[in-house]
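Subgroup meeting minutes
Present: P.N., E.W., G.H.
Scribe: E.W.

1. P.N. recapped why we're keeping a running log of single-chain structure predictions: easier to compare across weeks, and new members can see raw inputs and outputs side by side.
2. G.H. added today's entry (141 aa).
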Amino acid sequence: MPADEIPPFRVETPEPELADLRERLRQTRWPDPETVEDWAQGVPVAYLRDLCGYWADGYDLRRAEMRLNALPQFRTEVDGLGIHFLHVRSPHPGALPLIVTHGWPGSVVEFLEVIGPLVDPPAHGGEAADAFHVVCPSLPG
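Output recorded in log:
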């Protein structure tokens, strides 16, 4: 890919992959419960069971896809590593570039609620002078 060509990207997870993920979450083989009542031995099994149940049967993966796909996304390569990122330009002249990064574990999904106010402050009760062009890379892994 030429250095000046950064192709757009859309999240499009095939339904069989989502069905497989849900099934694998439901089929988790759980260890015996921990012997303490806190997190001293790691994540409590009951908490993890609830979390897996939510991911298998409660989390709307298609809604998450739609929210991400509503924003401009791209993929590029840096030093041989594939990188996904959001790049949302402000409609306001003079907007400053801003890189917003997440930690691990985490994802760009954490920032979906703040991107709009950052790129278009007047639409959210702010001033155009406070606008940013937002670049939000997904950390590898």
